[in-house]
Amino acid sequence: MRVLVVEDEALIRTDLGEALTAAGFLTESCRDGAEALFLGDTEDYDLVVLDLGLPSLDGLSILRQWRDHGRVMPVLVLTARGTWSERVAGIEAGADDYLPKPFHMEELVARARALVRRAAGHGSAIQTLGDLRLDGNQMRLTQQGRPLKLTALEYRLVVYLFHHRDRTVPVTELLEHLYGDDESRDVNAIEAVITRLRRKMGTGAIGNRRGFGYYLRGTAE
Ligand code: CA
Questions:
Q1: Among 28, 34, 170, 205, who pairs with 213 as Cys (CB 3.0-4.6 Å)?
Q2: Where does the chain have alpha helices with state H?
């Protein structure tokens, strides 16, 4: 799950980045409105956390333009405390949720996870598939009741496949959502992660359509 944090206050931006990374997200951040507009228009994110007061272009204008351009990723808006008009304007501009500042990081992470789940069509934090059980809040994946020890990258890949389990996910999409715009990303990296996961989960747990992508079967076989 790839998230963009748009916040011009360095301290909050850093805290948000650390908390979301610890929660299993691939986190990118930017501090400038115009840059945020460009990133949201051109990159695929599973979630955007958007501050409203930003240099060069304000958050509401950014959000309106994204929605005008057909960008549908979930957006959580950060508003100033007590300004109900900002919240209304945010929702009217296409925000999926909002949180007034100052906020508790735990609440932000919980809302972030819920938004990503809902966007993928799943309401509950606990999802099962075959003999796999994912607890998104605890960041725990178990197979036949046995916890699987996964690296951050392996966990992100399984969660992405879990959220999109009704289809085969193209390798290019996995690259985008697991590595972001990291220059070092390539197809072999994904294959290596899949190989490691199959070793841990059983070869049958992840299926593939050759030359296209991967899907979660959820049974070790
Ligand atoms: Ca600000």
A1: 170
A2: 10-22, 33-42, 59-68, 84-93, 105-119, 152-163, 171-179, 187-201
Angle at 146 between CA 142 and CA 150, to 5 degrees: 55
Q: How far is the CA of 93 from the centre of ligand 1 (A)?
A: 18
Strands 2-6 and 47-51 turn out to be: parallel
54 Cα–ligand 1 center, Å = 5
**What pTM, to 2 d.p., does this model score?**
0.88
Structure tokens at 108: 């932000």
Cα(136) to ligand 1 centroid in Å equals 30
User: For every one of its 221 residues, what pLDDT tens digit does the chain have, with 9 covering 90 and above?
Assistant: 999 999 999 999 999 999 999 999 999 999 999 999 999 999 999 999 999 999 999 999 999 999 999 999 999 999 887 778 888 898 899 999 999 999 999 999 999 999 999 998 888 889 999 999 999 989 999 999 999 999 999 999 999 999 999 899 999 999 999 988 776 778 888 999 999 999 999 999 999 998 899 999 977 66
With a CB cutoff of 8 Å and minimum separation 6, the contacts of 128 are: 134, 218
Whole-angstrom Cα distance, residue 158 to residue 122? 15
